[in-house]
Backbone:
């Protein structure tokens, strides 16, 4: 079985205004407040989720024990399709972080994709961050490319 790892930051990264302060992501996840993470490489994560949902892979949620990439990873939880995890595509209209949209793919009843508006506050809260911290976290990302919202629960933006 394949394992796809997502590592949650224990502290804010060096380029963040809260650099070095704890994120509390693990605690927020365990309390059910951090219900997703947002990642670049949307197509990669969509492909990985095909394997996870087919029962051929697990999503291993971890955090670094100390310095990222130079310390051991601590297991938070291995998640499978039975945990109702999922992925949704997130885009920002015109590459503008203030215009987030969830892409609802076409289906039998709706032949075209739909761009569903979602508030930045909601995205930030469900990502375990205050809005100012969430905005700072994503300020260096290329917002012209789709991102993946990786859900740790059955929650979806609909």
Residues:
């Amino acid at each position: 079985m394949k394992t796809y790892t997502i590592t949650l930051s224990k502290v804010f990264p060096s380029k963040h205004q809260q650099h070095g302060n704890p994120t509390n992501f693990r605690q927020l996840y365990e309390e059910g407040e951090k219900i997703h993470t947002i990642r670049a490489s949307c197509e990669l994560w969509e492909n990985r989720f095909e394997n996870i949902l087919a029962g051929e892979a697990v999503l291993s949620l971890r955090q670094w024990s100390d310095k990222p990439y130079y310390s051991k990873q601590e297991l938070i939880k291995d998640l499978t399709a039975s945990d109702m995890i999922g992925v949704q595509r997130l885009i920002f209209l015109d590459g503008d972080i203030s215009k987030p949209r969830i892409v609802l793919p076409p289906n039998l009843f709706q032949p075209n994709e739909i761009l569903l508006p979602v508030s930045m506050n909601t995205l930030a809260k469900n990502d375990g961050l205050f809005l100012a911290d969430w905005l700072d976290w994503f300020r260096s990302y290329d917002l012209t490319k789709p991102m993946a919202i990786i859900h740790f629960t059955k929650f979806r933006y609909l």
Q: What stands out?
A: The mean pLDDT is 96.
